[in-house]
Amino acid sequence: MRIRRILAAVFATAALAGLGLTGAATATAAGSVTTASVTPTSVTPGECTDGGGKIDRSTPVLPTCRGGMYNGQTVD
Question: Quick check: 54 and 66 in contact, CB under 8 A?
Fold first, then answer.
């Protein structure tokens, strides 16, 4: 029974963190809610080219999007 309560608390915390509700509540409590565009850390090849970029495969670890709206983002 105790393990179920602990697991329920862990899942609830993970769900709130995943939905970003804790950050939204903090921003609302502070009195300033702004809309910011979030740039992903990696993009698909289609997103890179659709955003006006080209895929640079000469980078050592992962291909990188060069130019356009996802400039500098890794492509996977």
Answer: yes
